[in-house]
Amino acid sequence: QVQLVESGGGLVQAGGSLRLSCAASRNIFSIAIMGWYRQAPGKQRELVATITSGGSTNYADSVKGRFTISRDNTKNTVYLQMNNLKPEDTGVYYCNAKVYNNRWYDYWGQGTQVTVSS
Fold first, then answer.
1. Which of 26, 54, 94, 105 is surrounded by the fewest CB atoms within 10 Å?
2. What is residue 39's predicted lDDT score, i.e. its pLDDT?
């Protein structure tokens, strides 16, 4: 089992930056995939970015070139650096961990609010 705690959200003006952190309750070295998802009001949760245990990354087209996902295995933490933020980036950002143990298990954090004003 994995507990995930996000932090770093807040209110920022368009064009600004934020860095989100996701602290895991256990060593993340063996977690197959960690990622960030977001949910805007009235919309479905969508993938923002993922990173594998090997360091491969994947981004939604809407954030490519602006957001960077990284992981620090020594701190059991995953980060999302968000630059050049836009109002459409507003939403609750959730950390996710996908663990394989005979089958896939999904774990979620409680979410952190990001609000980008125009």
1. 54
2. 98
The answer for residues whose C-beta is within 8 angstroms of residue 5's C-beta and 6 or more apart is 22, 23, 95, 109, 110
Strand partners, 12: 116
d(CA 46, CA 81): 17
| 11/16 Cα distance (integer angstroms) | 10
21 has pLDDT over 90? yes
Phi and psi based region of residue 84 (left: phi greater than 0; alpha: psi -120 to 50; beta: remaining): left
Which residue in 2, 4, 8 sits closest to 67, CA to CA? 8
Rounded CA separation 81/21 (Å): 9
Tokens of 70: 């990284």
Per-residue pLDDT tens over the stretch 29-79: 888 899 999 999 999 999 999 999 999 999 999 999 999 999 999 999 999
Tokens of 104: 């896939």
